[in-house]
Amino acid sequence: METLIIILAGILVMVATYLILSKGLIRIVLGAAILTHAIHLLLMTMGGLKKGDVPLLGENAASYTDALPQALILTSIVINFAVTAFFLVLAYRTYQELKTDNLNAMRGFKDE
Amino acid sequence: MSTVNMAIFIPFIAAMLIPLVYKKLPRLHIGWIVLVIPTFLFIRLACYIPTIARGETYLYTAQWIPSFDIYFSTYLDGLSMIFGLLITGVGALVILYSIYYLSTKESLQHFYIYLMLFMGAMLGVVFSDNIMVLYVFWELTSISSFLLIAFWYHRKGSRYGARKSLLITVGGGFAMLVGFIMIYTMTGTFHVREIIAVIGEHKESHLFLPAMLLLLFGAFTKSAQFPFHIWLPNAMEAPTPVSAYLHSATMVKAGIYLVARFTPVFGGEAVWFWLISGVGLFTLFWGSFCAIRQTDLKALLAYSTVSQLGMIMCLFGIGSASLHMDANIEAVLYTQATFAALFHLINHSTFKGALFMVVGIVDYRVGTRDIRKLGGLMAFMPISFTVAVIGSFSMAGLPPFNGFLSKEMFFTAVLHVRKLDIFAMDTFGILFPVIAWIASCFTFIYCMIIVWQTFFGPYRREKLERKSREASPGMLIAPVTLALFVVGIFFFPNVLGDYILKPAMASVFPSFQSDNYLRQPISPWHGFNTELMMTIGILIIGTLLYMSRRYWKGIYNLVPDSWTLDNLYNNTLTQMEAGSSFITSFYMTGYLRHYLLYMYVFFILAVGGVLVYTGAFDFHMANDAPINSYEWMIAGVVFTSAIAILFAKSRLTSIILNGVIGYAIAVFFVLFRAPDLALTQIVVETVTTALFLLCFYFLPPWRKENAEPRSKRVNLVISIAVGLVFILVALSVKSGKLFDTIAVYFENADELAGGNNIVNTILADFRAFDTMLEVIVLLIAGIGVFSLIRLKAGKGAEKIED
């Protein structure tokens, strides 16, 4: 299971990298979002998968699954959401002001 | 605070007070007040002469940075006394001269502030015992000299000369600093006297030679030795008092002081001997050779300074040979070279200072320094003419002036060194007297040019800007005083020898205890010996060459103009600028993709390289959990949608596919026993997708990526490589031996935090700090989104962007 998830995460990283290297603004935002998915999967996997029960104490299980990575991922999801939302609006505003989403056309001002 | 420490600080304090006084006394020439300082210091220092002559030295120490062994310690001995007297004495005369030279229309306060800074720094250099403090003052002289050269900063030449001198001298200064640090590493002390005491144990150290070379690099750049002499002629853009003071009498001798001061440390080594005497000898020749072709009097004097400094340097090199031997009679023979060097050091300051001042007077009165326009000034300027004759004839080495004595001693030294049987001198020794003699012939010629071209010949009124007349008496005081010294030293050289030079010799040769060895009386008449013959030869050959110089001037055109060292310096600078701007514009393209590529390539090489290089890859599936069929299916969904995004035709498809990946991951969280994560992931994914769709209408159209096939291939390769490195590292980490998890601790959530949901207790109790900051991130993002949408740049803001 761990091996499968890691390979899956690796494929997500490949896709994300390819998208980030492209010229369109939206592709880059999407690429960043996919990259975080990959990282979350990785974090989850590193804590070990399906090694115990749901981390709720009422269950009286023999062992619980590792709760620390879950807390970390939860934090990361929220931060990632904040960043994605901001990027999205930034992309929107950039497009509105510059009338282009081609990164190659955005190279700063000539006199800089 | 002792007197010597105060002597260093008084000029700095004066520099601070000058602007205040300048404002208060607008009518008075500020130079009169400044004049008091070097005069006072000169008298104060002169009071030490008798005690120093008895062999006493003074050491004062004040704390500066004791934890780094940096003490503000000053050491007054014979050597620093010579320099101290020169700095203050010539300084006083130069200031007196400058009062008449510079009118009150100039920004005088700046001039005197820089000059006082320089004087204080120079006194600091010669009195410092701690080499780190010495370095501080050393750089201060470079900086104040930079400011003084560029005093008329509106002139292009001044700025060029100032920059050139700063680059070269500061470059040398840095090298010297490294050398000093090496010395400290070897000996464990920054104090010159302690270094001299313990250096004998470290001669075999591998740092010994580099330290020596770096130190010499500093000394050669400062003292304008070949090939670093090129800054000195350009520094002549400075006002003439500055040229007379800095570039003949004091700053250019800082390197010589350094060599003299460190002779007890490095002297006796073949490298030291050869570098100093060889470079000095060549500089002597090259400077005198180049001086002849100059048409600007100050440039001519600059090259003559270079030449004379080379001669002094050469003498110090020869003198250092005696440290190779024991203190016997034969060794003492070579110490006479050092004696001659110190003697000529003083002589050069006197006659060169006087010559510069005369040239300044000519420039001031006539309006030009070009020898092609000058001529026949003798009748108009008799006193300046007399001073010029005294200075030039002394520089040429003619009696009855002090230059004759030092030149004779120089010949004695080079004739002696020929017979030296160490350092392979039996092969090359003959070069010393030959080159020295040829260089002296050239010296004679350019000295004659100064006198004859300026003061004799036809008077050409039409080429001159102003009507010629003698300078005011005040302007003549300083050069006449120096000229009196030139003559006075010739007639009473032994007074100088006993009181000034002998204690300085003791500083250079601390191991030679019996001071009777270190001094022989100077006499102008030795009988008919080789030295005298050489001088007569110079007189005859030099006169012939001077008369016939128009016939052999062609040799200066043999080497093309573009082959000069100046051109080398200029081209190096241009090439460096062009090269660095080429490199920078080569990789700083402004394309985001390129920068990302650098990062990814670095990631692949660094992380992947380490993985391969250390052989850390390790993979087994022993601890893996089993995979169910529906888990295969979800993995298949994620895989398919991820690949499909790359080929999506519309932005709606890609947004939905992204949503699919998000929901599939939420399902994975369910399978991995993470209910909170699954909930959050579903909510967040929904909101993100909603956001994408909300912006949908405003977002740019999803175009097909129209990149070149080549860059697409590069992107593909890079992405696959990044993914592979990611997978390999993750797999190795998974399969490695690890410590047990600390999560067991959090299973006490009920007792410790009173909650049953472990994840939530971690978030809100065990590690609540993370959560707080995460909330702040969310808040900031919210504010950011809000302000991006609401606050739009108006027309005014567009101008700011331009």
TrEMBL record, chain A:
Coiled-coil regions listed: none
What name goes with this protein?
A: Multicomponent Na+:H+ antiporter subunit C
Report the membrane topology from the UniProt record.
Multi-pass membrane protein
Q: Name one Pfam family in it.
A: Oxidored_q2
UniProt similarity note: Belongs to the CPA3 antiporters (TC 2.A.63) subunit C family.
Q: Where are the transmembrane segments?
A: 6-21, 28-47, 67-92
Q: Does the keyword DNA-binding apply?
A: no
Protein species of origin: Virgibacillus alimentarius
The superkingdom listed in its UniProt entry is Bacteria
List the InterPro entries: CPA3_antiporter_subunitC (IPR050601), NUOK/Mnh_C1-like (IPR039428)
Subcellular location, record wording = Cell membrane
Keyword terms: Cell membrane, Membrane, Transmembrane, Transmembrane helix
Give the matching Gene3D superfamilies. Answer: 1.10.287.3510
TrEMBL record, chain B:
User: Which keywords does this Swiss-Prot/TrEMBL entry list?
Assistant: Antiport, Cell membrane, Hydrogen ion transport, Ion transport, Membrane, Sodium, Sodium transport, Transmembrane, Transmembrane helix, Transport
Task: State the membrane topology.
Answer: Multi-pass membrane protein
Domain named NADH-Ubiquinone oxidoreductase (complex I) chain 5 N-terminal: which ranges?
65-112
What superkingdom does the record give? Bacteria
Has UniProt tagged this entry with the keyword Electron transport?
no
Q: Where in the cell is it found?
A: Cell membrane; Membrane
Indicate the segments forming the MrpA C-terminal/MbhE domain, all copies.
714-790
Give all residue intervals belonging to the NADH:quinone oxidoreductase/Mrp antiporter transmembrane domain. 128-427
| InterPro entries reported in the protein's UniProt record | CPA3_Na-H_Antiporter_A, MrpA/MnhA1/PhaAB, MrpA_C/MbhD, MrpA_C/MbhE, ND/Mrp_TM, Proton_antipo_N
TM helices/strands, residue ranges: 6-22, 29-52, 72-99, 111-127, 133-153, 165-187, 207-232, 244-260, 272-292, 299-319, 339-362, 374-396, 430-452, 473-492, 528-547, 595-617, 629-648, 655-672, 678-702, 714-733, 771-789
One Pfam family this chain carries? MbhD
Q: Family, per the entry?
A: Belongs to the CPA3 antiporters (TC 2.A.63) subunit A family.
Under NCBIfam families, the record lists: 2a6301s01, PRK12645.1
Q: What is this protein called?
A: Multicomponent Na+:H+ antiporter subunit A
Q: Which organism is it from?
A: Virgibacillus alimentarius
Upper lineage ranks?
Bacteria, Bacillati, Bacillota, Bacilli, Bacillales
